[in-house]
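Work Package 3 (structural annotation) set out to generate three-dimensional models for the target panel prioritized at the project kickoff. During this period the team completed the workflow that converts sequence records into discrete structure tokens, so that structures can be stored uniformly alongside our sequence database. As a representative example, we reproduce one entry of 460 residues exactly as it appears in the project archive.
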Amino acid sequence: MYLTDRSTPPGADTEQRRRRGLRPKVAPVVFVLGTVSLITDISSEMVTAVLPLYLVTTLGFSPLGFGALDGVYNGFSALVQLAGGHLADRVRNHKLMAGLGYGLSALCKPLLLLASSLGTLGTVLALERTGKGLRTAPRDAMISLSTPSESQGRAFGVHRAMDTTGAMLGPLAAFLILRTAVDGYDAVFGVSACVAALGVLVLVLFVPGKQRGARPAAAGTVRDGAGEPTGEADEPDGKRPVRVQLVQQGGPMDEAGAAGGKRPVDLREALALLRLPRLRALAGCAALLGLTTVSDAFVYLLLQRRAGIGEQWFTLLPLGTAVVFLLLAVPVGALADRVGRRTVFLTGHAGLLTAYALLLWAPDTPALPFLVLALHGTFYAATDGVLPATIADIVPEQLRATGLAIVGTSQALARFCCSLAFGAAWTVWGDGPALAGSAIGLMCCAVVAGIVLRPAGGTP
């Protein structure tokens, strides 16, 4: 079991602060990064909202062809996410790597105006997702490194709420552009490029280049790798943190820890993270669940067919998911800090499974779209920020971006495979059997994840 140090510096009157009801504040960099993500997500979700109909109805792609491109769009970042995380740790400049990622994605947006075939679209989308892969781990590392351990869920919840505000405004902007512009799709892609450039500008001007260390957590609080309270006390005699001692027993990371994270991290130290049993468990479970998580685009296409939603309203479906995500991201993140992140993470997948069941078997009623989108948004609120917050309890600071990238890569690769498999199954057997297979697989994988991620103390 890998425990995180929760010792408090001498003189810090945390008990008195707790009695006064003072909560740790979210670092300013979290709000700035949230603003960057908000702007960037407006740009990205404008494209995401129109892409399914653009490919299927305008360009005439089959479900298999669409599944291939959707897999590229959602999973290609996995091929570079590890590189982005490791390079950010190696050069000790998370802002630089995040900026390169945001910049590459912004440059690719105008190229969508020129792409019309499967090959060219796949290339442009792959480059755009390369930018996402480069920026995700360094950005999340900046959030975690500026936040005390007991508030990781809250901080990621704040960021995801701001990010989701952009995800909510993007489809709405695409909807308005399609209704007013003559060349609707081209106008959406052009405006998206301009908005993405604004996000890069905000990052360059307002995100600090150096991160301050996170404030230490309250004394006596210890969590395991699943984010569950263990009920154990900190080392009372000034010994080094238990987790660091265990990590150092793995070998090559001891020198980096002794150097305080000041010297560059080499590849050997990054690979040593795979010796952490809890990190391997998280990466494996994230991949296992990702293999049965149907992509958003397919969920919206299924909902449109199931509920008979007109094409003119299709771009508003992501808006429903985003609204629920926005409302729940912060309270669910705070809840995960209190009751345990494993519990909240698995509950989110149970909500997604319920959404699949409604799409398969619920009667066609006016409430169906609202129920499915509410469950879809709840799934993201309970998983999207909770997973990196859990990783932050396991991975040393000097390797934080690499650790986030390892888990993110495993999840993204799995979802890439899921998109390909789901598109093929839809083409061969139809949408109903394809979704039923995913639902059964998700239920089995969630049970396995619940067992594997069970805290060492046996907390349910």
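The chain is about 70% helix and 0% strand.
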